[in-house]
Specification:
The protein is 88% helix and 0% strand. It is mainly alpha-helical. The protein is rod-shaped.
Amino acid sequence: MDSQHLIDIGLGITSAVTGWFARELWSAVKELKADLAKLSVELPKTYVTRDDYRSDLKEIKEMLGKIFDRLDGKADK
């Protein structure tokens, strides 16, 4: 075997490994895109929306305000 055959074999093996690696990366990226699309659909169902959180927090603050007003008006002096 001369050096040209060894170089050709080395380049062939390198190209094959690089191609396999690129294919694996491509399939991983496609899978991640599918998972991200699925997550973006399911996420609003799992977590509380910002508007719902704000309205609930407003109700709690109003209730605490009423409680504090009653405590301030109480004559325990």
